[in-house]
Amino acid sequence: MKCPQVQKRLSAFQDGELTSQEKERVSRHLESCSVCRERYAEMEKAWQALGDLKEIPPEPGFYGELVKKINDSYETRSPVGFQWLFQFFSSPWVASTLLLAGILIGTFLGNFLAGSDLFPFRPSMASKSPGAVEVVSFRVFDPVPPGTLGEGYMRMVRNTEVQYR
Amino acid sequence: MGKTVSSEDLMAQVAEGDEYAFEILVRRHETPILNLIYRFIGDRTQANDLSQEVFMRVWKAAKTYKAEAKFTTWIYRITANLCLNELKSSGKKKLFFSESPIEEGQTLNEESNVFPSAEDILLAEERSSQISDALQSLPENQRMALILKRYDNLSYGEIAKIMECSVSAVESLLVRAKRNLKEKLVFHEK
């Protein structure tokens, strides 16, 4: 083996990661080559020096603190269901779909109520005489246009005044 | 004579909520995990906090642990990822040890029972500081690979699994780390 090849494998040789055949070849080369031998000796010296960095022991209350942190993490966490809900509704797609659905439902509901007899302040179509056409649209600028909530309120107030006279 | 339960078997019990098994696991692995982080990060308080974070993740992820994976590989991977992410999030590229790992009264030569002199302590502290600085000056991946090899004596294959890279990548990291280290270390003759 030549010096460049050996020097490339010196680290793995030091770490015991060579095959027995490779290890044998490097060892033989080191016996005969002072340059590679010196390089290896420097590597060994640096490697040994690292051993002077001593180990530190854990703090005496390490486990107790750990248990406390684990318990605290469960207490501060929101219930799983709410977390899932929050994550679900914070998704942009879900939020957009809900908004659109809300608008559509609101429009439908509004149309339904406006066309329904259930709506209290709209004059019933049945009370009109045949042929009569009420042009309500021209009265939308009245202070209290007919068929509006305002007219309903005024009617309610007038009825109340009559009741208490 | 009692048989030691393997960490893998203990994890199976932890997955079922066995707190006693968890305590045994923590006591068994707290020192190596703490020291891996300490050697990597260089700050004792931070190392303490991060090592607790590692064990919190072990507790919470117990159900996802696969028994065929070696426990030490798994926990070391969690630790390595946490260390590397911690450096990224703190924006620190180079850290220095905030305190000497050699504490007052700690013997250097544990076999001789000789109480060290003040000079010995100072020399030891200086050497520790040099080693710490040299380690901290290494790029993160080289530093992690070096610590796992030098202090935890893991094989290239195990380091590759922990760092999620190839064996040849580990060898390359170690070659560069040792070269950089040799240039930075100054040796004091006793």
Question: Radius of gyration of chain B from the CA trace?
Answer: 18 Å
Q: What is the end-to-end distance of chain A?
A: 122 Å
How confident is the prediction overall: mean pLDDT of chain A? 79
Number of helices of chain B: 8
Main interface by residue count: A-B, 29 and 40 residues
| Poorly predicted sequence stretches spanning 5 or more consecutive residues of chain A | none
Rough outline of chain B: globular
Instruction: Tell me the distance between the termini of chain B.
Output: 46 Å
* Tally of separate domains of chain B: 2
Shape of chain A: elongated
Q: Helix coverage percent of residues of chain A? A: 55-70%
The CATH superfamily of the largest domain in chain B is RNA polymerase sigma factor, region 2, helix turn helix motif
**What's the SSE pattern of chain A?**
HHHHHHH
Q: What is the residue-mean pLDDT of chain B, rounded to a whole number?
A: 84
What is the percent of helical residues of chain B? Answer: 55-70%
User: What is the H/E order of chain B?
Assistant: HHHHHHHH
The CATH architecture assignment of the largest domain in chain B turns out to be: Orthogonal Bundle
Oligomer status: heterodimer
Class of secondary structure makeup of chain A: mainly alpha
| Low-pLDDT sequence parts of chain B | 94-112
**Proportion in β-strands of chain A:** under 5%
